[in-house]
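hey so i finally got around to running both of the ones u sent me last week. sorry it took forever, my laptop kept dying halfway thru and i had to restart like 3 times lol. anyway pasting them below in the order u listed, first the sequence line then the C-alpha cell line for each. didnt double check formatting much so if smth looks off just lmk and ill redo it

first one:
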Amino acid sequence: MLPLLVYLVGQLVVGPYEGGRGIMGFVGSIYAGLLRGEVSAWLLVASPALLTACWAGLRRVSGHNPPASNRAADAEQKES
C-alpha cells in the first residue's frame, strides 16, 4: 500500500516515473531493491510495521495502554 501512495504522490509532486512501465515498473524496482538489500527499499516496505511497533511501544511505556493481562486482572477485580 505504501509504495502505491509513494508512487501517486511522486506523480503529483515530481512528475511521471522515468523507470518505465508506470506503477508496475516502480513496484518492480522496489522489490528488486529488496532483493539487493538496499536500505531505502527495506525502509519503505517496512515503515508501516516499524511505525506501528514504535507507537505500541510508546503507548506501553507511557502506561496509556496496559498489557492485556493487566486488563483481564482488573476486570476480574471489578467483578468481585
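and the second one:
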Amino acid sequence: MSRYWKAALPFLLAAVIILAAASNQLLDDIAVSELREFREGLTNYVQSNGAAIIQEIQEKGTLSPENLEQLLTLVRDYKKQVN
C-alpha cells in the first residue's frame, strides 16, 4: 500500500460511510448544522464496531451487499444512540 493511500484512507473510509448512509436516506433527518459532528461520531462508531466492513474497504476497495447492510445497521444503531 502506497503512503498516499495510507494517508487518504481515513478520509476515504469516512466518505464511504457517509455516502452509504446518505444514499439510503439515513441522513435526511440530521440538521445540516449537525452533520460534521454526526459524521465524525459515526465514522468513529463504525471503525470501532465494523471491523469486517473496514477491512473489506481497505483490502478490496469495495463494499459487498452483506457488508453494506451491516454498515446501514451500524448507522441506524448510532442514530438511536445519539438521538
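quick thing i noticed on the 2nd:
The mean pLDDT is 91.
anyway thats it, ttyl
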